[in-house]
Specification:
Layout (H helix, E strand, L loop, with lengths): L7 H9 L14 H18 L3 H14 L3 E2 H4 L11 E6 L3 E6 L10 E6 L4 E12 L2 E9 L12 E8 L5 E6 L9 E2 L8 H4 L3 H4 L7 E4 L11 H14 L9 E7 L4 E3 L5 E4 L2 H15 L8 E6 L16 H11 L8 H9 L2 E4 L3 E2 L21 E4 L3 E2 L10 H13 L4 E3 L9 E2 L3 H5 L4 E6 L1 E3 L6 E4 H16 L1
Parallel strand pairs: 1-2, 4-14, 4-15, 15-21, 16-22, 17-19
Antiparallel strand pairs: 2-3, 3-14, 5-6, 5-11, 6-10, 7-8, 7-11, 9-10, 12-13, 13-23, 17-21, 18-20, 22-23
């Protein structure tokens, strides 16, 4: 027997056992350059879209560049939508839906990829500016699941908008340009932190302690009590024309001021803020933009508020998706629309819930079951079920649909793996999948594995990002 010839047992093992392979062993010639180019554009997206509104504005530009027309504009006409037509519709600048009309009637089902644009961050309170000990600071309220200590002693930027009393909308971005000042949340020096360091990590920095350093020069008037606060308000008024009361009708977010960067000496990974879940959002956007004449109508849905339970009129639990889907379907038929048609569409539809998974970190292996954990560079992750403890709050995909997706990825030569969010009873989490499933659609979670998830600097492998894009594109065209 040749030393290169496999034994009977080795051949049987190859046939019967399963172990996801490192994707770099399987990629085609030239595919590395393609995935690196793809991720260069992705980094630009991360840098431009640090808030939901900014990210949505980027997607609108990309959509219109690729021939998509707004539903709101179409509703002013009597145009009937035909196979191949491309439409988008925006929800309050925080969500968006892209639709490519398929050859089949939509009551035969649509192929939906749904992701979320919101990401953990720190919001300003409605009355944020105060002065203490000759320093102006901002009061904040964190959004989503963060480790609060990770946000101290970092360069931070201020993004968002202010609505003045007369309805004027003021866009604010401070801290991104190299000439801009940045902000920060201070931390104790080790010499004075003995008591702090005896506390639990969850208590070392409190929510009310996430106060942003905002200025220190006082207004030159001895009769003014809070000189530094007044000077800051005066500077804001000079630059933006706003007064303190305008913060009541503002949405202002504190985000990391640094840009997305390549990670690793081989530049094989992307590090940056907001990759949960903008990495899957970006892959879904680019996939739907590349779709031409699908059999089934292809829909990309990007929503808000997933990190806080998908509540509200921009979250997955709102009626936006159903309402806009009904509006679009009504424009594909030459007969009167009725609500039963929408019910039939939803019943026959299938969805990939495009959300990230927690990659196994070799520095912290004990929180994972290695046999069921996702790894970087092993491709897009299929997560059959979510939830916590005994699958509480889970969306649990049925075996038939998982089998269908598995077969599709194998057929399209997409590098894929399975995974779950940590050991049983260790943690857990949820996605928008449960709310899609409530519409009686087939759904399974499918996305990119991340390191340092929910931190200010999350890390994803370029191979996994690119394979996720290919996975979504193949699903749209299936």
């Amino acid at each position: 027997m040749s030393k290169h010839q496999k034994t009977t047992g080795q051949q049987l093992s190859d046939k019967l056992t399963y172990e996801p392979l490192n994707g770099w062993k399987t990629i085609q010639t030239g595919e590395k350059d393609e995935m690196y180019r793809f991720c260069d554009h992705y980094k630009t997206f991360l840098n431009i879209g640090k808030t939901e509104r900014e990210a949505i504005l980027y997607t609108i530009e990309r959509a219109e560049e690729n021939g998509f027309v707004s539903l709101e504009a179409l509703m002013l006409t009597d145009k009937i939508l035909k196979p191949g037509d491309k439409v988008y519709t925006v929800n309050r600048e925080k969500g968006i839906m892209f639709v490519v009309i398929g050859k089949q009637d939509m009551t035969q089902g649509i192929h939906l990829v749904g992701a979320h644009m919101d990401t953990p961050r720190i919001d300003l309170k409605q009355n944020p500016i105060y002065e203490d000990s000759g320093i102006a600071l901002l009061k904040t309220h964190y959004y989503g699941g963060i480790k609060k200590y990770q946000w101290t002693a970092l360069p931070l930027a201020l993004h968002g908008l202010v609505i003045k009393k007369d309805g004027t909308k003021i866009q604010v971005v401070i801290g991104e340009d190299d000439k801009d000042p940045v902000f920060c949340i201070t931390d104790l020096l080790p010499h004075l932190a003995q008591n702090q360091m005896q506390k639990k990590m969850t208590e070392g920095v409190t929510g009310e302690g996430l106060n942003v350093l905002f200025g220190s020069i006082g207004y030159q008037d001895e009769k003014v009590k809070e000189k530094v606060k007044l000077n800051i308000l005066n500077l804001l008024h000079e630059k933006y024309g706003i007064i303190e009361q305008d913060f009541v009708s503002a949405e202002l977010q504190i985000v990391p001021a640094f840009k997305a960067r390549d990670v690793g000496f081989d530049a094989s990974m992307v590090g940056g803020y907001g990759q949960d879940d903008r990495v899957c959002s970006y892959a879904a956007i680019e996939a739907v933009l590349a779709v031409e004449a699908p059999e089934k109508t292809a829909v990309c849905l990007l929503v808000d508020k997933e990190e806080v339970g998908s509540m509200g009129n921009t979250g997955m639990q709102s009626r936006f998706f159903e309402n806009q889907l009904a509006e679009i379907y009504a424009r594909t038929i030459d007969k009167p629309y009725n609500d039963l048609m929408l019910r039939r569409i939803l019943n026959a539809s299938k969805c990939l819930s495009a959300d990230v998974s927690a990659a196994l970190d070799p520095t912290y292996p004990d929180v994972h079951d290695k046999r069921n954990a996702p790894f970087i560079n092993k491709g897009v992750v299929i997560t059959k079920y979510t939830g916590a403890r005994g699958k509480a709050g889970a969306s649990d995909a049925n075996a038939e649909f998982v089998g269908e997706i598995r077969a599709l990825f194998e057929r399209e030569k997409i590098v894929w793996q399975t995974g779950e969010l940590g050991k049983v009873d260790q943690g857990g989490g949820g996605t928008i999948a449960q709310f899609v499933a409530n519409l009686n659609m087939e759904v399974v979670d499918c996305g990119v594995p991340l390191l340092s998830m929910h931190s200010p600097f999350e890390v994803a492998a370029k191979l996994d990002i690119y394979m996720t894009y290919k996975a979504y594109k193949s699903f749209y065209m299936a």
